Amino acid sequence: MAIRLGLFDIMQVDPAEATSDDPDRATPSAYRRRLDHLALADELGFGLAFVAERHFMPSYRAGSPAAWLGAASQRTRRIRLGVLAYTLPLHHPALLAEEVATLDHLCAGRLEVGLGLGHRPEELVAIGVDPRQRVIIFQERLAILRALWSGGQVGFASPTTTIRDVAIHPLPLQSPHPPLWYAGTDAAAATWAGGQGMGMAVGFRPTAALAPTATAFLAGRAAAARGDDAFAPGSLALMRHVYVAETDERARAEVVDDLLRLRALASAGDRGSRSDRRALAEADADALTRDEAMLYGGPESVAAAIAAAATTLGTDTLLANVHAAGVDDERVARTLRLLASEVAPRLAEVGAGAAP
Question: Is residue 254 part of a domain?
């Protein structure tokens, strides 16, 4: 079974930009470059590209994922585009249902929709949402979304959500709605998501730490397949920071150089000799590998690491964040090209999707 290659972008601000006198001046250029990268990924045959939703944080540029996807829909033709994930308690379901339907038409039926509870309580508190109510809000609004996307007229009133006899137009292009994903790490929620036909993404932690969530998701998916549910099985994706060069040696040397520059930016002045600073950067690079925070190396090594995690977890999709801090556009493009041309063929027959 081939592993599908995709992208995940949290739109983080590069530390070099954050330390400038006016970091916001870099934002238009950053958006243009990200769109160029998406257009290249589309040409190279990547299957998916997700953007995150982040609010009220100066280290991210992901406050309006819908606006981003609208722009991305006009720069791409084949790659599926999505949000991973909308924080559902922040969105009124009638307005979000319309937004998703509109985006699905703009994307010509290529939209994917992730939904989450909101694991940053400060985002909820900032606009008056009680984090203690987020589970019930999520459940209510997901049911409303599905009803609206099915073409129904919906009326509903609760302490947190009110909708009065609303129907949306147009309906999503995909029927009954775009594929749904759940964002979260709780094992019980993962079982529920698998049983609902939703996709799920796990990542940015060591494989062993992700195993309970992945196993729970696959168990829920398997149980639904044995029952009378009409849901098609959702995908299980692994999220990783990924950096690919022509050889392992070149990738490591470049990662160490990047870490060395980031250490210099973070320090108030010149601390220690250059050899000492390089030794610390090399230790940081080793930690990235040890903690599985980043997959870096030549195509063969990166493919082997992806395959090993997929076999352990049962994942069928890789969502790569290729925008590490300090990496310039040329090297981002190189990672994309090597993933498509050298890594993907090595992942064509990986035994992903094993039973839990």
Answer: no
Distance (Å, whole) CA 151 – CA 141: 16
Q: C-alpha 319: how far from its chain's center?
A: 6
| Within-domain flag for 91 | yes
Q: How far apart are CA 77 and CA 205, in angstroms?
A: 32
Q: What is the domain extent for residue 314? A: 4-248+292-346
Tokens of 71: 């722009």
Does 322 fall in a domain? yes
Instruction: Tell whether the model's pLDDT for residue 356 goes beyond 70.
Output: no
CATH code, 199: 3.20.20.30
Q: What digits encode the pLDDT tens for the residues 31-71?
A: 999 999 999 999 999 999 999 999 999 889 999 999 999 99
Pairing of strands 162-166, 154-157: antiparallel
Could you give the C-alpha distances from 309 to 41, 105, 153, 240, 333, in angstroms and in order?
Answer: 23, 35, 44, 11, 24
**Tokens of residue 119, six digits:** 């694991």
How many domains, the chain?
1
SS3 197: coil
pTM: 0.93
Cα 15 off chain centre by: 21
- Identify the H or E element spanning 193: helix 187-195
